[in-house]
């Protein structure tokens, strides 16, 4: 049987991206269940010592491709190396982050290998399958579980006959867990100079402007999230004030982001970030499934809504019937009054 | 026309605001209650395509959409806003195609339109949110890809320079034509319909649509053959049947479930000063905040 592969993304600080470490943790568990090894592929420039970040997650084989053409990320050289490696080693399972890079790369790889790919999985499990038409029993397939139809239903997808079984997963969905700080894995250097073809450099990067993200929603203990019901960008400012006062971060629903009330990077939900803070205050969020799925694991949920029947209230510990612009200033006032 | 831009667009159920009206009593989605719309990022893609056309002057935008008969609405809408022509890729054999089979069908259709310069599509469709079909189609056609485009910086007969959105920034890239571009929602909004185009093309129909019309269009179509929207099936695009539809799709849906959340016993309070103060005291004393 072949192995589980995880594509490790390198971020701007030349660190392995969190989403990749989360996938390695999941990949290790899947490999254990399937009784196979975990392999990782990392591509970049100046990757000396990168193994220290990757092997502790229980990686048995680490393929390193180190070449100036591999950083910053470009589709074609990365796709070339991943496709060649997968052709040679036919992974059983291949996982990519559902990040801008992973969502650019994985479909390209899947198309070249003519295999199935499921985007934005919220859960990955191993399970059996029986195909009536061909009377075939598959003892251990990857169940790729993902929301569909705008998040209103959950679909379990399988790829019975093509390999690798490919999936992407968003940041925050899987938990990051080190297997053993001293885990022994083998390092395999890719012969990048011969593997990369001149035509892989067809797209030239002329200029890049990257800022460090100012928002850190994923690790925030308290999140004040606003929805379309907040009404305006100005009203969103109230949420920022509350976040400032009680020490939280501001999040938003997709509807609020689409309406221009908040930045994309604040989006919580299946197509945004998955969060599990100790307190989640949902302001004017009706709670579409796609939003609830990204925050329902929060320890405490407070919903502020004028609609007593908003779906989010069903998963809230406290429901405040009222307008955001009335409630939030009072929360600020009574927080200040009672703190000391 | 010397410069050919191919736009991929999709008609999708409007899943963005699935409110209470669109939910049935048992918690499932009432698809019938959702209007079919032009996929939002495909409209951004149309705008970028039209901007390229504006810059190049002697250029045409050809819209391809894959879907049932009704999806011809998308082609008309694109033409109303400035596209030149469209093809509806439709065949019962295509039903059940996953993203791989879909990208095969689209790539076969695109091959019928060679030579072309730019292939443009929205990043992703809101009914699936996979963002896979663009890159997969590019791979099938062996085209380089520029994803998450938000602005065309420069374009000429040989190359295009594009600003693309990154996770926390932007990047400007340049590549030789032909290549594929997927467009991010941060790209400019699509221009409105052009009255003149609507006047000219309001009777544009596919053959299937014409057969359903009660009015006789024969004379109109004889004098204005450009009103006919071509329908291409598996034969017209020379698709191999084992690569399309359910049979050509490596992914299978094993199970569909409604989303079930664990319901909580919610304490309902008012927005009064007393209630809010009590809540804040509770949050502080239980160390949830502070």
Write the layout of secondary structure elements.
The complex is a heterodimer of chains A (340) and B (290).
Chain A: E1 4-8, H1 18-34, E2 38-44, H2 51-54, E3 61-66, H3 75-89, E4 93-97, H4 100-113, E5 117-121, E6 123-131, E7 136-148, E8 153-158, E9 165-169, E10 186-189, H5 192-195, E11 203-210, E12 222-226, H6 233-246, E13 249-252, H7 254-258, E14 279-283, H8 289-292, E15 300-305, E16 318-321, H9 324-338
Parallel strand pairs in A: 1-2, 1-4, 2-3, 3-10, 4-9, 5-9, 12-13, 12-14, 14-15, 15-16
Antiparallel strand pairs in A: 6-7, 7-8
Helix pairs in contact in A: 3-4, 6-9
Chain B: E1 3-9, E2 11-13, E3 36-38, H1 40-56, E4 59-66, H2 72-80, E5 85-89, H3 99-111, E6 118-122, H4 133-140, E7 145-155, E8 159-166, E9 169-176, E10 179-183, H5 195-201, E11 205-206, H6 207-212, H7 218-223, E12 228-232, E13 252-258, E14 267-270, H8 273-285
Parallel strand pairs in B: 1-4, 1-6, 4-5, 5-12, 6-10, 7-10, 11-12
Antiparallel strand pairs in B: 2-3, 7-8, 8-9
Helix pairs in contact in B: 3-4
Protein model, in words:
The complex is a heterodimer of chains A (340) and B (290). Chain A has helices spanning 18-34, 51-54, 75-89, 100-113, 192-195, 233-246, 254-258, 289-292, 324-338; strands spanning 4-8, 38-44, 61-66, 93-97, 117-121, 123-131, 136-148, 153-158, 165-169, 186-189, 203-210, 222-226, 249-252, 279-283, 300-305, 318-321. Chain A has 340 residues and is α/β, with parallel strands linked by helices. In chain A, helix 3 (75-89) packs across helix 4. Chain A starts with a strand and ends with a helix. Chain B is an alpha/beta fold. A ten-stranded mixed β-sheet of chain B has the order 9-8-7-10-6-1-4-5-12-11. Chain B is globular. The model of chain B has no long low-confidence stretch (mean pLDDT 92). At the A-B interface, helix 3, helix 4, strand 5, strand 7 and strand 8 of A face helix 3, helix 4, strand 7, strand 8 and strand 9 of B. Strand 16 of chain A pairs parallel with strand 14 (267-270) of chain B.
């Amino acid at each position: 049987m072949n192995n589980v592969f995880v594509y490790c993304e390198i971020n701007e600080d030349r660190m392995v991206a969190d989403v990749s470490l989360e996938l390695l943790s999941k990949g290790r568990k899947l490999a254990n269940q399937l009784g196979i090894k975990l392999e990782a592929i990392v591509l970049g420039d100046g990757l000396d010592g990168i193994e220290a970040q990757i092997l502790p997650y229980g990686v048995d084989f680490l393929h390193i491709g180190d070449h100036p053409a591999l950083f910053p990320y470009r589709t074609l050289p990365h796709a070339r190396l991943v496709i060649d490696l997968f052709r040679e080693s036919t992974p059983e399972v291949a996982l990519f982050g559902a990040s801008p890079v992973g969502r650019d790369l994985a479909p390209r790889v899947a198309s070249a290998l003519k295999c199935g790919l499921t985007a934005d999985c919220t859960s990955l499990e191993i399970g059996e399958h029986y195909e009536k038409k061909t009377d075939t029993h598959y003892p251990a397939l990857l169940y790729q579980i993902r929301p569909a139809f705008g998040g209103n239903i959950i679909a379990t997808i399988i790829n019975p006959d093509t390999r690798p079984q490919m999936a992407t997963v968003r940041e925050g969905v899987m938990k990051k867990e080190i297997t053993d700080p001293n885990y022994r894995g083998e390092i395999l250097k890719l012969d990048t100079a011969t593997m990369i073809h001149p035509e892989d450099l067809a797209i030239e990067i002329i200029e890049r402007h990257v800022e460090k993200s100012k928002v850190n929603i994923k690790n925030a203990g308290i999140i004040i999230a606003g929805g379309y019901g907040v009404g305006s960008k100005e009203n969103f400012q109230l949420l920022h004030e509350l976040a400032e006062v009680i020490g939280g971060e501001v999040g938003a629903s997709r509807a609020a982001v689409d309406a221009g009330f908040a930045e994309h990077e604040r989006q919580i939900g299946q197509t945004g970030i998955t969060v599990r803070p100790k307190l989640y205050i949902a302001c004017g969020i009706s709670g579409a499934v796609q939003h609830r799925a990204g925050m329902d694991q929060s320890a405490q949920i407070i919903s502020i809504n004028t609609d007593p029947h908003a779906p989010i209230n069903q998963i809230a510990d406290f429901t405040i019937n009222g307008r955001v612009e009335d409630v939030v200033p009072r929360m600020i006032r009574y927080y200040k009054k009672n703190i000391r | 026309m010397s410069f050919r831009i191919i736009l991929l667009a999709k008609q999708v159920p409007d899943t963005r605001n699935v409110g209470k009206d669109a939910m049935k009593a048992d918690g499932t989605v009432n698809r019938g209650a959702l209007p079919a719309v032009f996929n939002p990022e495909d409209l951004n893609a149309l705008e970028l395509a039209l901007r390229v056309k504006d810059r190049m002057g002697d250029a045409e935008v050809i819209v391809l959409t894959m879907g049932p008969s009704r999806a011809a609405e998308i082609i008309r809408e694109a033409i109303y806003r400035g596209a030149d022509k469209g093809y509806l890729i439709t065949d019962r054999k295509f039903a059940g195609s996953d993203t791989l089979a879909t990208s095969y069908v689209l790539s076969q259709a695109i091959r019928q339109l060679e030579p072309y310069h730019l292939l443009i599509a929205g990043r992703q469709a809101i009914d699936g949110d996979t963002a896979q079909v663009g890159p997969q189609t590019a791979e099938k056609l062996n085209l380089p890809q520029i994803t998450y485009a938000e602005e065309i910086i420069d374009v000429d007969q040989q190359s295009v320079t594009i600003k693309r959105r990154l996770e926390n920034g932007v990047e400007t890239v340049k590549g030789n034509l032909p290549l594929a571009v997927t467009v991010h929602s941060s790209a400019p909004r699509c221009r409105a319909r052009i009255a003149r185009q609507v006047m000219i093309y309001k009777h544009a129909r596919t053959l299937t649509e014409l057969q359903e019309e009660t009015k006789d269009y024969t004379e109109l179509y004889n004098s204005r053959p450009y009103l006919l929207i071509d329908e291409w099936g598996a034969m017209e695009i020379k698709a191999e049947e084992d690569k399309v539809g359910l049979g050509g799709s490596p992914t299978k849906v094993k199970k569909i479930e409604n989303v079930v959340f664990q319901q909580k016993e919610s304490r309902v309070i008012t927005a009064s000063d007393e209630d809010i103060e009590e809540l804040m005291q509770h949050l502080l004393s239980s160390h949830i905040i502070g």
